[in-house]
From TrEMBL:
Record Gene3D superfamilies: Metal-dependent hydrolases, Urease, subunit C, domain 1
Protein name: N-acetylglucosamine-6-phosphate deacetylase
Gene this protein is translated from: nagA
Cofactor: a divalent metal cation
UniProt source species: Glaciimonas soli
Listed SUPFAM superfamilies: Composite domain of metallo-dependent hydrolases (SSF51338), Metallo-dependent hydrolases (SSF51556)
Cofactor binding notes: Binds 1 divalent metal cation per subunit.
Ranges of residues in domain Amidohydrolase-related: 43-363
Entry keyword annotation includes Magnesium: no
Active site feature: 261 (proton donor/acceptor)
Enzyme class: hydrolase
Record-listed substrate binding positions: 133, 209-210, 217, 240, 294-296
Pfam families assigned: Amidohydro_1
Amino acid sequence: MHGKLTGNVLTPHGWVSGTMYFNDRIAEVNGLTVNPDHNADDYILPGFIDLHVHGGGGKDIMDAGDAVYAIAKIHAQHGTTSMLATTMTSPPGDLEQALKAIGHACWERKPGTARVLGTHLEGPYINPDKLGAQPDYVQEATLAEVERLSALAPLKLITVAPEMSGHLELVRVLSNAGMRVQIGHTSGTYEDGVQALQHGASGFTHLFNAMSSFHHREPGMAGAALAHAQYSELIPDLLHVHPGAIKTALRAIPHLYCVTDSTAATGMPDGEYMLGRQIVHKCMGGVRLADGTLAGSTLTMDQALRNLVSLGLEIEDASRRVSTYAADHLGLHDRGRLIQGSFADVVVLDRQLNLKAVYVEGEQIGLTDMQFGATRLNGQ
């Protein structure tokens, strides 16, 4: 056993004041049930799981090559222990090159990086009227095309606008084949959303953003999510979604989980960056197209946790929404929880919820001292 951590350990059964032993997987957790408010020990939580990552550290997933490793490294430094590399709507050649690179990263995790679980295919199967920051290379989805792309890299999530021609039946086929299909970048109605869920759609992509909004006489796609979804992702940077809307979603959707939708600008100074084939501008904590449209974020998962707690969530609830529920959505039972046999994906936070240590499959990750600063070994 080469790893040992002591503190307030968040287990699936509650807080334990004790010790966790691990190698690449957790061997055991020993301790006594505790209220962590009654001591000053560190918090030991499951590593963060981000199912919507476009970039970071100046790199974009669509850059292909080794970009995915650079992105997985900077997100690991912020506590993300596993992630889905997320693509953009793009010309077919660009998408294929990006998927090939993601495929390599899935087969081999490099030291110091988060585990790349697979791909979130965000487009090209979306509605051209709800592109958001996606460039207009939209195409109709077909089973043959999805199967061809899935041979390049594991497709763990696919965002689809169900109202587009042929897409509703494809949602059923893909869901029956074991793929998770999310509803997003959609102008569909409430009824379209309900039908898509009945056909097997598993959730919604960045709830409220790039979808038909809620109105009390036309509840839209957002209304379908609030009324019927078990799972949905949401960007809690407090810019994409108002805190009041976040609280509404938290009450309505049992397994609402958080994503960053992070871009190349994450961890970088203000300036111009690429998001697929689009130029985006980072300024004052936001990322936008030239016309002001929000274009992803600079959020990291450790900040997402802090934002949730600032809205009034207990740490254990916030932890589930940046880790466990995402694992559950993908059907992963050995991540997102600190229990014997699970991967040793762990974050250690101080009492102010600042990162002190990160472990990916038992490997200690170097953390960044400051936003654009040097890397140090955890705890040194």
